[in-house]
Every structure is written in structure tokens, then in C-alpha cells.
Amino acid sequence: MAAIKYNARDVEFEIEDFNTPGTWVALATAQGGSGEGGINTFSVGHEYETTDTTTFASAGRAESQNMQEGKTLTLEGFRLKDPVTGALDPGMALVEAQAARLGEDSLVGFRFAAPGDANWTVWANAHFQLGDSGGGNNDKVGWSVTVTRSGPDTTAAKS
Q1: Rounded distance, CA 126 to CA 13, Å?
Q2: Left (φ > 0), alpha (ψ -120 to 50) or beta: where does 9 sit?
Q3: Which residue intervals of the chain are DSSP H helices?
Q4: What letters, b where the CB count within 10 A reaches 16 and e where it falls short, cover 94-113?
Q5: pLDDT tens figures, 18-68
Q6: What's the pLDDT tens digit per position in 110-155?
Q7: Over the stretch 63-99, which tens digit does the pLDDT of each residue have?
Q8: What's the CA gap between 136 and 118, in Å, rounded?
Q9: Residue spans of beta strands (DSSP E) within the chain
């Protein structure tokens, strides 16, 4: 079958529960989580550190090589809160708690998969930084987080 476009809304995201390692909690999207999609935008970022390898033999033309690669994934959408209990969506609550942890405790697992993927892309060590939250008079409250990979990607079979 030929490769086809797929819906961004169908990508799944999960954070590992730092209270119960090995337990994964979904972030609510159109297709996953609490049934009410909070996340409505994501983007994967790439950053590179290079080193200059220019010598006299380069004859005035710059030369360089990639020496380090970093990855981030930003999630944005609406903050989901139970109007009766005041509880946040479980995935968002876990992200917010994890973002407040420091040092070694700031690292926890994060994984994501596109529709049809047999495996998760796993960032075994990732840290979380919350973005601004709020809105105007006629807005729903926004929510965002940037997840930064620390170390390499791995994979795990989806069950």
C-alpha cells in the first residue's frame, strides 16, 4: 500500500506515572484520553549543535559537522477540568506535577505513536516545561507543555 497522509488528531501521547513506574497515562486528544479532547496541536522540534571543521584546505568555504541532536515535542490545547470535583484531566494533572519536579526527579518516560504504528516512540527520560495558560473573555482556557528528550529514542510494542 502507498503511504498516505494521516490525521494529527489521531496521534497518541502518554506520560509515565512517576508514582507508579511502568504505568502510562494518556493525554486527552480527539481519539484518546478522557473522551473530551484537550490537546489539539502538537509539533516535534529538532535542534542540532555543530562543530566547525574548516581548515586552510577549505579554501574559504565553511565546513562543519553535526555533533549533537536534541528533540522536543510541544503539545497545546485546552485545559480540561471536572466542573464538579475540580480535578484536572489525569494526563494533564500528571504533566503539571511532573513539570514541578527538579533534578533527577524531573526525568520520566514519555511516548507517542501515529495511527497504524505497531510501536511507541519512547523517550525513556524526558522533562516537562509548562507553557502559558489562560484566555480572553470569549475563550476556553488554553494549556501547553514542551517535552524535551534527554538521551536517545527507544521503541516499545503497542499492546
Answers
A1: 13
A2: alpha
A3: 90-99
A4: bbbbbbeeeeeebbbbbbbb
A5: 999 999 999 988 664 445 678 999 999 999 999 999 999 999 999 999 999
A6: 999 999 999 999 999 999 999 999 999 999 999 999 999 999 999 9
A7: 999 999 999 999 999 999 999 999 999 999 999 999 9
A8: 41
A9: 12-16, 24-26, 39-52, 64-78, 108-113, 119-130, 142-149, 153-157
